[in-house]
């Protein structure tokens, strides 16, 4: 999505009084995105994004997310910067929701990612992993195995409405992950949702990353396979190994993978596909309907889970 929460002009005007953004000239809700309510603001000082944080974002985590953007930007990773109020704070309350203003990033997300886009995203993902290494705050991944179990418990009963046989299929996956999820690979700060709609380009040059609201500490290679899933499948759900090879090469041009990470790619990719299938399934079954809410199809990620189950060697992803 989305705009889950509406904001009145007078409430917004009052909220903005404490921010150094000048006079409000216009604002409108942004239909894109899934998790939070976003508004584009035009003010006397330019364009800004106002975000009202919704159900999956804990207010206590906001200093981590917004602090991370400040940290990464300071290390040369292009991403939005939180706007500080006159009192130094960056988190406020608007329409009953936690809210923040961040700077506007130029660029467009690629509707049809090419191998060149994939190479760039791999390169910048690795640069982000390196830049995050000395970020002083930590946040466990709320959507790791325990979080997946909670989503599944809330959706399993109605899973067959989406795909016959899904309950059995996912139960079997959980048994595999409980037994074999990798525990000791290189870990650090990950973006955890680096889909094409969260990466802006000017032409084929990456201009910035947005949407750090799933960022956390977890396995670095898990972030990489999330990108393989999001960037390297075609509309017919075939894996494009040229794009996969480009993304992996871009990544390894900055941070070479260890042998253990390479071997773990299939199970990590399968787990990441399950994670996105589960949030989509949950929202499909329980999320609100409305003109400014676009629900994402869990079936896409059911197909990807099946693809990864059939992988025999990590080379199939395009490793050299
Ligand atoms: N800093 C930014 N600069 C420009 N546009 C932004 C920025 N942040 C968000 N947007 C716009 O808002 C949309 C939704 O943002 P996103 O953070 O992905 O929302 P959600 O967290 O709800 O998924 C993006 O697709 C983009 O159009
Ligand atoms: N990328 C997730 C949904 C999260 O939405 P985003 O707009 O923040 O990318 C998915 O595709 O399921």
Automatic annotation (TrEMBL):
<keyword id="KW-0028">Amino-acid biosynthesis</keyword>
<keyword id="KW-0067">ATP-binding</keyword>
<keyword id="KW-0791">Threonine biosynthesis</keyword>
<dbReference type="InterPro" id="IPR002575">
    <property type="entry name" value="Aminoglycoside_PTrfase"/>
</dbReference>
<keyword id="KW-0808">Transferase</keyword>
<comment type="similarity">
    <text>Belongs to the pseudomonas-type ThrB family.</text>
</comment>
<dbReference type="GO" id="GO:0005524">
    <property type="term" value="F:ATP binding"/>
</dbReference>
<protein>
    <recommendedName>
        <fullName>Homoserine kinase</fullName>
        <ecNumber>2.7.1.39</ecNumber>
    </recommendedName>
</protein>
<dbReference type="InterPro" id="IPR005280">
    <property type="entry name" value="Homoserine_kinase_II"/>
</dbReference>
<keyword id="KW-0547">Nucleotide-binding</keyword>
<feature type="domain" description="Aminoglycoside phosphotransferase">
    <location>
        <begin position="27"/>
        <end position="257"/>
    </location>
</feature>
<dbReference type="GO" id="GO:0009088">
    <property type="term" value="P:threonine biosynthetic process"/>
</dbReference>
<dbReference type="GO" id="GO:0004413">
    <property type="term" value="F:homoserine kinase activity"/>
</dbReference>
<comment type="pathway">
    <text>Amino-acid biosynthesis; L-threonine biosynthesis; L-threonine from L-aspartate: step 4/5.</text>
</comment>
<keyword id="KW-0418">Kinase</keyword>
<dbReference type="Pfam" id="PF01636">
    <property type="entry name" value="APH"/>
</dbReference>
<dbReference type="InterPro" id="IPR050249">
    <property type="entry name" value="Pseudomonas-type_ThrB"/>
</dbReference>
<dbReference type="InterPro" id="IPR011009">
    <property type="entry name" value="Kinase-like_dom_sf"/>
</dbReference>
